[in-house]
Amino acid sequence: MVMGEFTQETDVLVIGGGPGGYAAAFRAADLGMDVTMVEADAGPGGVCLFRGCIPSKTLLYVTELMHDAQRASEMGISFADLKIDLDRLREWKDKVVGRLAKGLVELTKRRGILYLQGKATLEDENHARVQNSGSSHVRFKHAIIATGSSTRTMAGAQFEPGGRIMDSTGALELADIPERLLVVGGGFVGLEIGSVYASLGSKVTLVENNGQLMPGIDRDLSKPLASRLDALFKSIHYNTNVTSIEEDDSGVNVIFDGAIEKKTQRFDRVLAAIGRVPNSQGIGLENTKVTVNERGFIVVDQQRRTTDEKIFAVGDVTGGAMLAHKAMHEGKVAAEVISGMPSAFDFQAVPAVLYTDPQIAVCGLSEEAAKKRGRNVKVTRFPWSASGRAVSMGVPQGMTKMIIDPETQRVLGVGIVGREAGEMISEGVLAIEMGALAEDVGLSIHPHPTLSESEEEAAEAFLGSSTHILPQKR
Prior knowledge:
Layout lengths: L6 E9 L3 H12 L4 E5 L6 H6 L1 H19 L14 H25 L3 E4 L1 E4 L4 E5 L3 E11 L3 E3 L13 E2 L1 H4 L8 E5 L3 H13 L2 E6 L10 H14 L2 E4 L1 E8 L4 E7 L5 E4 L1 E4 L3 E3 L32 E3 L10 H16 L12 E3 L4 E6 L2 H7 L4 E6 L4 H6 L5 E6 L6 E8 L2 H13 L4 H5 L10 H11 L11
Parallel strand pairs: 1-2, 1-6, 2-3, 6-17, 8-15, 9-10, 9-15, 10-11
Antiparallel strand pairs: 4-5, 5-6, 7-16, 12-13, 13-14, 18-19, 19-22, 20-21, 21-22
């Protein structure tokens, strides 16, 4: 600390302004604490708002509209040839982000939170320095680290602004629509952004080092999406790795290893989507008692406490599912614990949603996980080919499945693939968190015809009372 330098006093210092950070800051302020939030961006929102969730879902919704327009021809409705105005599409994306960003800035101000744009470095368990245009010194009673994660780099690849090898941030800028795009990674980011570019006209080649798309998701849920992407993408190659990548002024040369015939190919752009790593370096953790594990994640307990009693951590930097909604709940828990409330992050079902067409949404125990654990479960499935609503919408390829304990009848997991799966999964989350039985879901009257009705029928399939499919053996 420099002699004579001004020191800002605060009850809670939140380092990071993404969903975990701003949720923590807002909750702490609502509980009567003085809060200071530090973030490199001009306002709160983080990667999710500015470079991830919101821009990607905005573009995915646009591509969904395009798919609907194409599907409508089967229903007797024909549109003129679809035209893509890339400039206006970028403007729409930026407008959506800007509107939400403005709302978060206003909420920050109205809660009386001091927002500092800059980079915070912990100096000890009570002090931090904030580097920006000048320098600020902050003394805090408690700190909440919410620094998030960054794209995992690929050997030989450099993510340079305007470069041909892109991470998700670069891809969402929509600099152009490349004729040939390589997507490395068949997880959430690769499939979502790959779908956007394919819908906009790129010939997309996807490689995945696993034997299926969305590793960790039950194969019966990923199969309808794989079929859709087989038609949308130029090609998909499983059990394939990139061994060499070299960018020049006009393209990217790539050498592959694995189950792909042509080992050397050239692309206009490459999207690297091979996972994320925690932002735990360079924030001064070495000056505290905070413990970091071998993978770089900050170690926390259920109350989001680190091994330094004054410091908490939430979100991607702590590991587990790297999801904005999980980070937000963790942020609230941290703020509540600091305030003295008996709060803990103790959830049975954290939902995950893939916003492709069709969407995939899951929560709770999966069928594959149950098999690996040797747990006895009953799996029921309701095919959307038997759903009046799905058929009338022209999307009968979906499915709703439930994982049920055959003895207690408790709903342990739910998986949905199909249109609006992300909007439907919350009923599954509530059922699991409330300890609902299959009978509770099956006897709850759902409106007909709806997609959500498929959850009732999946539960009824377990009970042997499903109307629109034949009874399954128990």
